[in-house]
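The records we work with from here on pair a chain with its fold. Here is one such record, which you should read through line by line:
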Amino acid sequence: MLNKLLHFIYARPSMQRHNNRRLKFALRARGYDNCCDFKASGEQFFLNFLAKKFPVSLCIDIGANKGEYTQIILSTMPTAQVIAFEPQPIACESLKKFQLKFKNRLTIVNKALGKKAGYMDLFYREKASGLASFYKENASGLTHLNNKTIQDTTNINELQKIAKINRLKKI
């Protein structure tokens, strides 16, 4: 009986806008689409917890983009070293400002990181916000940026080799 009543009220086309707002609110409460707010997403809480409970000496930021998460790691964990992998050259340039701020604690690698070493084409838009993809279809979807797609061949480092170099027992 209650299900029929709820269906009658909320399944009408006139209620869809309201339903979409409620859904968006519920998803945000569960952490979805909170990517740019480290406090709302729970990432800041998680990093604070790690910093208090475990002596973190090395973090690997795979796909570091412009370095927002790298900066949070370095600020929260004052003794941690970060190796930031970012294959997109424009985004990688943005990371360099954090190297000055955090001195010898940040290593920037302008390469991708994957299961095996090799080369792949990376597609991104000229003057983009750091958005890039190994799939041309994804990059061509960034048409709102109104500039041409750039195709670069990028070097991919093997994750296991990076782990061995840094004496990591487990990833």
